[in-house]
Amino acid sequence: MIKFSNIFKSFSPANEVLQNISFEINSGELIFVTGSSGAGKSTLIKLISALEKPTSGEIIFEDQNLSDLSNIDMPYLRRKFGMIFQDHKLLFDRNCFENVALPLSINDTTSVDINRRVRAALNKVGLLDKEKVMPITLSGGEQQRLAIARAIVSRPSILIADEPTGNLDKKYADDIMNIFYSFQQVGVTVIISSHEAPQSPIKFKELHLINGELGNKDVPLLS
Amino acid sequence: MFRYFHNHFQALIRAIIRIKSNWISSIIMIAVIGITLCLPATGFLLVKNASQLSSKIEYDAQISVFLSKDISDDQIEFIGSTLKQSNLVKNLHFEPKLKAWEKLQTKLKLNSLDAGISENPLPDAFFVTLNSLDTAVIESLHDDIQNLEGVNEVIIDSGWIKKLRSILYLIKVALFVLATLLAIVLIVVIGNTIRLQTLTYQNEIELSRLIGATDSFIQRPFIYTGIFYGLGGSLVNAGLLTVIIEIFNRIAYKFEHILGGSIVLYNLSLNEYLLLAALSMIIGLFASYYAASQSLKKIEKNF
Fold first, then answer.
1. Which of A19, A170, B13, B101 lies in disulfide reach of B120, CB 3.0 to 4.6 Å?
2. Residue (of A31, A10, A6, A53) closest to A208 by Cα position
3. What's the pTM?
4. How many domains does chain A have?
């Protein structure tokens, strides 16, 4: 589904953030991108979700080379991903319902469909009773779940989360992780960046970054 | 096709929501546009009314026929009857030179001896009111009269109307320049407001980009806001002009006996108001499109 071949990424010539990264993600897999701070997790996540372009190397997504895509096609590619950001990126001038509805309005969904799908997404993360509430009044864990509802509302085949549990205590973090696992169970590819791989009941692949290089022997690297 | 209209309808709704959510600044913005439009519009209104007035006055255009000094009474009578016969002549008035000289002396409080003028310098004259406006007809009449024996000089008195018209034309040109400058001012003011709005909605713009909104999708509500500003401004302008005209007409009515006639300002026509509205909406569209696309370029994607 996603194939990275010899990816290099640098923001300045002296500073190589990612070096010679090669891996393949298959449809329906659970992936953890791990590593200490500054190892390049966020950059790798950005490359996977096509928010950044690699300095060199090749990224193939669904048989398409991303470097062939023009800037005009980029937004349409991004709609295939459900993104969950480190800082949630919720809009605090809109209520929960409107926050979740945002990707659908971009997608030309009709208002009947929007109502139905937003409620389904809120129900999935357990926030259906808060649809009229402003997100500022939600707890950290609830905000994270709202962000997840927004990511899944357009039914993406890939869910990408950048440190989704970074600021949460263990109980909330487990809740969030269970939500991700449940999506992986129904066939969604789930990619999560995290400080370290959790004790997961589900089989997963780990992409362990050390100073911008893949360093995990468990991962079947491409030669 | 349906999608296209649905998209635009959504953008329209979002623009209305945004205008509503900061309605105070929106009202101020619309007032600024309305007042700015009002300046050249009032000018055009005055010029339009003055042109209408000048076309009414034109019916009273005159030809003055000055006769030679050594003309005989028979010749004067002949010229008079010739002029009377012409069907272009509406009214004919003969002014003998003696009477004209007396009139002039009383008017200037002048004594001919004091002034060192020994004889009457004025000629006999016919003043002819015409019933035609056609310059070609007037010109040929002018030539015909000029060729009559005993006629010294023929002056078409409609000249001042030409002057008035050229002055009005000049004012029109000046107003056009003023309107162009004010249009630029409006573009800058609307553009700057839209730019500030894009900064207010920066989070939303960034997020929309991250989740796959196209730039035109993000720009659209801002562009609609600009168009709304233009439309609102033109409505304010129409209201202001109507009030100005009403006040002017009431004051003019009070002074009617002093001015010796009624002066009534007429409002712009519906078509002219529609044209103004279209122009200010185009200004709004242009300004907001430019400002939104410029600041979208500046807002970096970061997450």
1. B101
2. A31
3. 0.74
4. 1
